[in-house]
Amino acid sequence: MSGLKRVGLTIDGLKVQAAEGTSILKAAEQAGVVIPHFCYHPALEIEGNCRMCVVEIEGLPKLEPSCSALVREGLVVRTSTERVREARKDVLAFLLAEHPLDCPICDKAGECRLQDYYDRHGLTASRMVEPRERREKKLAIGRGLILDRERCVLCTRCVRFLRQMPGTGELGVFERGLRSEVGIFEDAPVDNGYSGNLVDICPVGAITAEDFRFKTRAWFLARKPSVCPHCGRGCAVTVESVSGYPLAKGERRVYRITARENPAVNGFWICDLGRDGRRDIDEGRHARLMKAGVPVAGLSWQTALADVAAAIRTVPGPERSAGIAVVLNGRLTCEELALAKRLFVAGLGLSKVYFADRKPGSADGLLLTAERLPNGRGVLEAGFAPRLPALDEIAAADVLLVFGPYLSEHLAEEALAKAWAGIPSKFLFSAHEGPLDRLADIVFPVAVPAEKSGTYINVDGTRQTFAQAVKPAAGVAAESAILAGLANLLALDAGGGDAR
Amino acid sequence: MSENGVRLLPLDDDSWRLEAYLRRGGYEAARKALTSMAPKDVVAEVCQAVIRGRGGAGFPAGMKWSFVPQGGAGPRYLCVNADEGEPGTFKDRLVLRRAPHALLEGMVITAFAVGIRTAFIYVRGEYALVSGRLEEAVAEARSAGYLGPRVLGTDFGLDVIVHHGAGAYICGEETALLESLEGRRGQPRVKPPFPASVGLFRSPTVINNVETLAAIPQILAHGAGWFLGRGVAKDGGTRLFGVSGAVRRPGIYELAVGTPLRQVIEVHAGGPPEGRSIKAVVPGGLSAPVLKADEIDVPMDFDSLARSGSMLGSAGIIVIPDGTPMLDVLHVTARFYAHESCGKCTPCRIGTSWILKAVRRLRRSGGSPADLDLILRLAEGIRGRTLCPFGDGAAMPIRAIVTKFRDELERAVAR
C-alpha cells in the first residue's frame, strides 16, 4: 500500500481517502457507503454490465458505473440522488420484467441480491404486459450444478470466475440480446475442483447446487465461521446449519459449507473438497459410545474414560514407555496437541507416540495442498516428530490409544486385526465410523473440527484460531475434553484451565 | 462538389486497380510523408485539417492519434473499422470497391505517423465481393512495395491483415470490434482505458473508419488548410453522403461537409419521385434522430446537426415519403435495435426488446396511447445508461419518432 498515492474525494458528503486506482464502489464501501451491484465482484475482472452501481459524479453529464470509475483527487460523488435512484429502479424494472418471480420455490430467496435490492431500491409496480421469455429452468451444467436461465441476470460472474480462477472456462454467454444465455460448450460440462464457488457468487438463484436445492430455506440457516480441515491450506469457511426448527427437536443438520473471505489465505474461494466437507460433519458419524463393536446406550464418555485410566494404571511406571502406545493425528488443534504432549510425553513419559493421518493427495496448484490434514505445521510446532507406527510397534503394546480412524488407510485391515488381537486394552477416539471400530474395546465418539474451537497452523505458517461452528451431538466430546479428563483421572497436570 | 477535381471516389471503371490509382497520383502523399516529414509533423498536419471520424462519432482523427502514448517497447496497432452496419449507410462499401488503395495509402500514412507496423482491416461479414477486391488490392500493394517490410523503399514497414466479421452490428463499436478481432464474443469493453492506451491485444491501438483513412492522403497531398477549407470551421473535407429511400437518384454523393441537407436530397439525389413529398428524414444513419420535413434546412456537419437535435453520424440519409406510417418506421427501428443489442448491459438488453414488444402491441391494435408513454419511459431508462453508444443510438431515434409524430401515432393506435 505504501507505494500507492492516496487521493481525497467526497462521497455523499463524506471526506474519503482512497488509494489511487481504487474504484469509487470500493472507496465508498471502505467509507461505509454501500452501492448496490450485481456484476461487480472484488476478485473478478470489471465487466460493468449490470448498470446497478451507477452514481452521480459532479461535472459529468451521465451517471457513471462506480465499479469501473476510479477515484480522483477532488471528485464529488453522490450515490443516492433522485437520478441515481431512478436509474437503479429502471435497472430493477428491466431485470424483473424478464424474471420468473419464483422466489417461493427459489433456493436463493432470502439471500438474493435481486430480491434484496427490489425491497430497498425498487418497489415499483409491473408495467410489463407481454409474457416473459421462456427459458431452460433446470439445465445440469456439471458437478451437480443446476442452471436456471429464467432467473439469470447475465452478470457473467460465473463465466469470469471460471476463466480467471480455475482457468477452465467451461461457461460462456451464447446468442445475443434478449436471447443471450449462459451455457456450457457442447459436451464439455463444468468440471473443475472449484465449481461450488459458482453458487456462492451467483447474485440470484440462477446457479444452484443439487446438494442444497429444495432442502431448506436460507433464513433457517445459522451461519458460523470456521476453518476448513480438509487440507493444509486452512481456508476460511462458513458452516451453515439448522438445529431444531424446522427439523425435529434435537436434530441438527449442516446444509452447506460456503467460502468465507480471507485475503491472507483463500481470497474468496474454497475448493469442492472443502465444500463437500459438509458430509464429514454429518455423515458416517459415531453417535454413541461403542463397546466391543456394539453401541451402548446410557454410558457416558466420562464414565467410560475411567476404563482407559484404569488400563493405563495397570502398566507400572517404568514399563509405560514401552507398554503404552498412542496414535495421534494432524486434525487435532494446537491446543489439543499441547495437551497430548503434556499428558503422554511429559506426564506419562511415553516414547511410543505416533501419528496417522489421511494419505496425501495431489496439490492442484491453486488452494488445495497435497497434505490432507489441517494442522501438520501445528504437530511440528508442538514438538512432535510425526511418524506412522509399524505393525509390530503397535502389537507390542499393552495399552493402545488411537485418535482418529486413519490407521486403516495405511495398514491392511487383516494385519491390523491380527496385531490388535494381542493387545490387552485398546481404545479408539474417532468421529467417524471405520474398520477400526470392531477392533477396539471402547470407541469414543469425538467431535469434528467444525464442532470444536482451537487453532490450526496452515502450510504457510498462518496461525488461525476458530470457534465452534456447530454443537456436537449429546455424548460426543472434543479430544481436548477427553485428554483433560484423562489427565484428571490420572491425577496428572495437563495444563489446568485451558484443558476444558 | 469537387473543385480542382480531387475526389475520394473516382469515377473510372478500373479505379480500384493499383495502376489506375497511381495514374491519379496515388501513393504520392505517402511518399511525401515517409520521405520528407517527421511522424509528429504528420499528426500535426492531420490535427490542423480537423478531419472528424466518418464512422459516426465525429471524433477528430488527428487528436485520436495524438492520444497514443509515445515511446514504450510493445507493439501498437491500427484497426480499420470496415464493419459498416448502420442502417442507411453504404459509403465504406463503395470506398472499398472503387478506391481500396486510397484506404491503404491512408493506412500507410497513419501507421507511419503513429509508429505502427501491423494493421488490421475488420470487414463486415456480409461484404464478400468487396473484401475480395480489398484483399487483391492488399496483395497488389505488397508486391509493388507500397506495403510490406520496406514501404516505398524506406525503413518503414507495414503489414496489413484483412479480417472478416460475422455480421453483428455491435462489432462496429470500436471496443467490440477489438474483442471480435481477438477472437472473443463481440461485446463492448469498459472505457476507460481507451483503445489509444489499451486496445488490441492490450496494446495501444488506433481505430479509424474506412472513409476517414481514405481521406488522409488528400490532407497530405494538398495541405491541412486546403482540406479544412472544403468543409466548415470545425469539420474539414468532403463527406460521402449516402441517400436512400424516396428519392429519384439514390446513391453516394461526395460533397463538402456543411452542404445543406435539403440540397443533398433535392438537388443531388433528385428529390422525391413525381407526386410524392418528404415526410421525414433520418440524416445520419438509423441512430440519428429523425427530422421532420420542415427541419431539413440544416448544414450537414457534426455541430450543426447536433444543434438541431440530431446527428450527422455516418451521413447515411434515409428519406421517408408521405404515406409511410410512422408506426411502421417505429417498428422497423425498434426491431433493429432489439435484434442487434449485444445483450451485455441490462437496460439495452431488456429495454430494446421491451420497447419492441410494446410497439408490436400497438401494431396489433391491442395498445393504447399510454403505451407511447411507456415506450418513452423505457427509452429514457436506456439512454445514457449503457457501456457503449448503442444504448443512446437506440433510445434517441425512438424517442424522436414518438415525440415528433405523437399525433399520428395516437391516431393510428386509436383506430
What can you tell me about this protein's structure?
The complex is a heterodimer of chains A (500) and B (415). Chain A is an alpha+beta fold and 500 residues long. Chain A folds into three domains: 6-80, Roll (Ubiquitin-like (UB roll)); 95-209, Alpha-Beta Plaits (2-Layer Sandwich), CATH 3.30.70; 290-499, Rossmann fold, CATH 3.40.50.740. Chain A is 25% helix and 19% strand. In chain A, the strands form six sheets. Chain A has a seven-stranded mixed β-sheet with strand order 15-14-20-19-18-16-17. A five-stranded mixed β-sheet of chain A has the order 2-1-5-3-4, with helices on both faces. In chain A, α2 packs across α3 (113-122), α8 packs across α15 and α10 (334-347) runs parallel beside α15. Chain B has three domains: 3-230, NADH-ubiquinone oxidoreductase 51kDa subunit (Rossmann fold, 3-Layer(aba) Sandwich); 238-321, Ubiquitin-like (UB roll); 326-414, de novo design (two linked rop proteins), CATH 1.20.1440. Chain B has helices at 18-23, 28-36, 39-49, 61-66, 91-98, 100-114, 128-143, 174-181, 210-222, 224-230, 261-268, 302-307, 326-340, 346-363, 369-382, 390-404, 406-414; strands at 77-82, 118-123, 159-164, 205-209, 238-245, 251-256, 278-282, 291-292, 316-321. Chain B is globular and about 70 Å long. The chains are: A alpha+beta (500), B alpha/beta (415). The interface between A and B is medium-sized, with 35 and 31 residues.
Annotation keywords:
heterodimer, A: 500 residues, alpha+beta, Ubiquitin-like (UB roll), Alpha-Beta Plaits, Rossmann fold, 3 domains, 7-stranded mixed β-sheet, 5-stranded mixed β-sheet, 15 helices, 25% helix, 19% strand, elongated, B: 415 residues, alpha/beta, de novo design (two linked rop proteins), 4-stranded parallel β-sheet, 9 strands, 12% strand, globular
